[in-house]
Amino acid sequence: MAVILLTVIVVLLPLAAVTSAVPSIGVTYRHPSAARASPEEVAATVQRLKISSVLLPNPDPNLIRAFSYSDVSLLLSIPNSHIPILAANRSNAAAWLYTHVVPFYPRAHISAISVGSDVLSTASDLSDSVLPAIRNIHVALHELGIRKISVSTTFSLLNTLTTAFPPSAAEFQPPVHDVLVENLLDFLQEANSSFLINLQLYDLYRLDHEIPIGFALFQEGLFNFRDDLTTGVRYRNLFDTMVDALLSAMAVAGHENIPIIVTETGWPGSLNSEGGVDEPTDACQVFAEMFLSGLVKHLKSGIGTPLKRDGVSEVYIFELFDGEMNQSRNGQVLQWGILYPNLTKKYKFDFSGSSGGYGFPMDAWLVLLLAFGHGIVLMFGLLLTPATAPAVRRGDTESTVWWDRVWARRRSCRWDGVAQGGGSQCCGARQRLGGRLVSERPCLDW
């Protein structure tokens, strides 16, 4: 009976899903020197692969020019080293625009500018300069009569949030919130700009050994889920978990309606060992293809995330070519490129959502069956067990009041762990993803 009921649920769930706008899927193009082709050839290849958008860190004017008269949308990222200069006065901001935007716009479709990336994790303290630099670029654009290019800055989720799971418990780390995020969110709301975030999904998977590999790779399986007991939401992949964690943190800050752009996510297809370090088996092309195919399929489905029907507006896959200066960790240099230097594809997936059909490896399924055997029956029971709270989605009419009540209660908490006007403990901090310990108490007694 349980099996029959499970079959009915599996059949009906896709019919009940309500799709929304499909996000734009692009790539990061960091290293022009890694390609053996000219900027024009790279731009032509991007269009041939039906890649709709490209993120250009430290944008080269010649490369921007190569995308003129194309349908490819460009997100330009200004290097962190430029931030103090841009913050100093508006003339410097205008000078940067006259070099990187004015000669090409609107022939080149420049949609957004990121003033710096992950500035809070850099050695130099740029936090006080980021927002003035953003405002100077924004005002300079308007003075030039350009009003369709949004301006923001890029954060790293691992260095910004207190936790990624459960998503309902996520908040901005107190120093981040106090120094930059609070005022930035107000600006983004006023300017109709987006919150830009790097989702280092592979790094989080490596840090948290409790995350199943299938959960990280968008594989559908009996054991590839994690439940948020506060909201009753069952998460089927790590990407949605991280996005909803950011959404929850933004909601606590009072700005859950600001659009989200994922400026970096991916999976390494290989690595180079420089110090005799054993290579982890999860940095391989098979897993990279599974992740990329699953990501594109998930985004193209238009179902959003459990807490946000519209999901994210754009996602940038890291990266077009293998980087020459990727960060080493324990003697390992990860390679993330989806193209070889000669512009041929490494993987079978394409940006339309179809793929070469990589599923979870058969030997992995055999291991699961042998290891858990009779436990599969138990898993059927768990799948049919009601959640502890209503599984609601922000944006659904019937759930909006419930979500507003939950987030409003969390907003009433101060960072020191004392409820405003109450006196009872409300917000206990948690282990931060960046490695700094705040506290081990749950945020709220729901």
Outline the structure in words.
With 446 residues, the chain is of the alpha/beta class. It folds into 2 domains: 2-411, Glycosidases (TIM Barrel); 413-446, no CATH class. Helix content is 37%, strand content 14%. The strands form 3 sheets. An 8-stranded parallel beta barrel has the order 1-2-3-4-5-6-9-11. A 3-stranded antiparallel beta sheet has the order 10-13-12, with no helix packed on it. Strand 1, helix 2 and strand 2 form a beta-alpha-beta unit.
Short description:
The chain has 446 residues and is an alpha/beta fold. The chain folds into two domains: 2-411, TIM Barrel, CATH 3.20.20; 413-446, no CATH class.
Give a topology summary:
Layout: H1 2-16, E1 24-28, H2 39-48, E2 53-57, H3 61-66, E3 73-78, H4 83-88, H5 90-100, E4 109-117, H6 127-143, E5 150-156, H7 157-160, H8 174-191, E6 195-198, H9 201-207, H10 213-216, E7 226-228, E8 233-235, H11 238-252, E9 260-265, E10 270-273, H12 285-300, E11 314-317, E12 328-329, E13 332-335, H13 362-372, H14 375-383, H15 397-411
Parallel strand pairs: 1-2, 1-11, 2-3, 3-4, 4-5, 5-6, 6-9, 9-11
Antiparallel strand pairs: 7-8, 10-13, 12-13
Helix pairs in contact: 5-6, 6-8
Would you list the SSEs in sequence order as H and E?
HEHEHEHHEHEHHEHHEEHEEHEEEHHH
Work out the oligomeric state of the chains in this entry: single chain
CATH hierarchy, class of the largest domain: Alpha Beta
**What is the name of the CATH superfamily of the largest domain?**
Glycosidases
- The CATH architecture of the largest domain comes to Alpha-Beta Barrel
The structure class reads: alpha/beta
* Helical content (DSSP H or I, runs of 4+): 25-40%
CATH topology of the largest domain: TIM Barrel
Structure summary, number of beta strands: 13
Counted up, domains total: 2
- The gross shape turns out to be globular
The largest pleated sheet is described as: 8 strands, parallel, barrel
What is the helix tally?
Answer: 15
Low-confidence stretches: 1-18, 355-392, 394-402, 414-446
* End-to-end Cα distance: 35 Å
Strand content is: 5-15%
Major beta sheet, strand line-up? 1-2-3-4-5-6-9-11
If you average the pLDDT, what whole number results?
A: 78
Radius of gyration: 22 Å
